[in-house]
Design a protein that fits this description.
Low-confidence stretches: 1-38, 231-237
Order of helices and strands: HHHHHHHHHH
Largest sheet: none
Radius of gyration: 19 Å
Structural class: mainly alpha
Number of strands: 0
Shape: globular
Helix content: 55-70%
Length: 329
């Protein structure tokens, strides 16, 4: 397989347009990853005394960015992956992407000198994950008023089998990057306690994202929707081109976080927040249009049948950290 693409034979060009339009309008010694040993630590045990603000002296492992927090984060993401994948939910593609990218972050943090302030990045990783898990569990419980609109759109589309696999992935990425990430960054702090900007460490994430994107796309295609990966279409959008679009989303998220932090009054901040929400929803609506199934020409039948057979398959490509088991986190 020479390249990995977002989208299938009939959708690759529209995915390219969707990503481009979304960006104009406006996913964290190498050894194979293995399941953590020991008892499962419920994510909820980390919520008492939780703060989205980075406080190095906090007794809460996630607030202070202690290594144990990442273990809990990975297990919680793996729990959602297992739940969605085993049922062939259309939410499984984003759940897989987030789990694998978080594994890649775990790999990167063990490289000496990769980050200047590792606890700061551990904390931000946990806060970012919590925004996703909160939206997921509130949606599952029917608490729609507690779910941001961009996530409602993504989860509704997955529930209704409305869009292609590439559409489900991009809707999740849009909600988490364009909507969640600015608030995560603003709450965690754009400047570390030592007075140094966190932008340098934030940008280092781009390195492992680039390395993990192709195997992640290949695994999602191998397990859930084969149209996600079609290297035979010469007009297809390569994974690297799509990564550049996601990279632009991340840069926009930092700029939006700066706008939140620098807003001079609560009213001004509310206006910035409202624009972040509306811009993310605008992107989501565009993805719904470009990625929707069009019966009887296209439908979800083949995808669902494929998933029922392949949902437990192994990843076909090696990640930077090795080859994970299907539910290895």
């Amino acid at each position: 397989m020479s390249a990995t693409h977002f989208g299938g034979r009939t959708r690759l060009a529209t995915v390219a347009g969707a990503v481009t339009a979304a960006v104009a309008a406006v996913v964290v010694g190498v050894a194979p990853a293995r399941a953590e040993t020991g008892p499962y630590v419920p994510w909820s045990t980390y919520l008492p005394a939780w703060s989205d603000q980075y406080v190095p002296t906090s007794a809460n492992d996630c607030v202070s960015g202690k290594p144990n927090c990442l273990k809990a984060t990975r297990k919680e993401l793996g729990r959602i992956l297992s739940e969605t994948a085993q049922s062939c939910s259309h939410s499984a593609i984003f759940a897989l992407a987030y789990t694998r990218i978080t594994q890649a972050y775990a790999w990167s943090r063990d490289i000496p000198g990769y980050y200047e302030d590792l606890p700061y990045m551990n904390h931000m990783d946990a806060v970012f994950a919590k925004y996703y898990t909160d939206a997921y569990y509130n949606y599952r419980a029917g608490n729609r008023a507690l779910v941001p609109q961009a996530w409602l759109t993504a989860h509704d589309a997955a529930r209704d089998h409305r869009v292609s696999g590439s559409g489900d992935l991009l809707l999740g990425m849009n909600a988490h990057i364009n909507r969640d990430l600015p608030f995560v960054l603003a709450a965690s702090g754009l400047v570390r306690p030592d007075g140094v900007s966190g932008k340098g460490d934030y940008d280092k994430v781009e390195q492992f994202l680039s390395e993990a994107t192709e195997p992640m796309m290949a695994e999602a295609a191998a397990r859930f929707d084969s149209t996600l990966d079609d290297s035979n279409d010469p007009m297809g959008l390569s994974y690297s081109a799509t990564f550049q679009g996601i990279s632009a989303w991340r840069e926009a998220a930092w700029r939006n976080a700066e706008a939140l932090v620098s807003a001079p009054t609560p009213a001004a901040r509310a206006l910035v927040a409202a624009k972040i929400e509306s811009d993310a929803q605008l992107v989501a609506q565009g993805l719904l249009q470009t990625q929707a199934y069009v019966p009887p020409l296209t439908s979800t039948t083949a995808r669902d049948s494929y998933c029922s057979v392949h949902r437990n398959d192994a990843a076909p490509l090696v990640y930077p950290y090795g080859t994970p088991q299907p539910y290895d986190y």
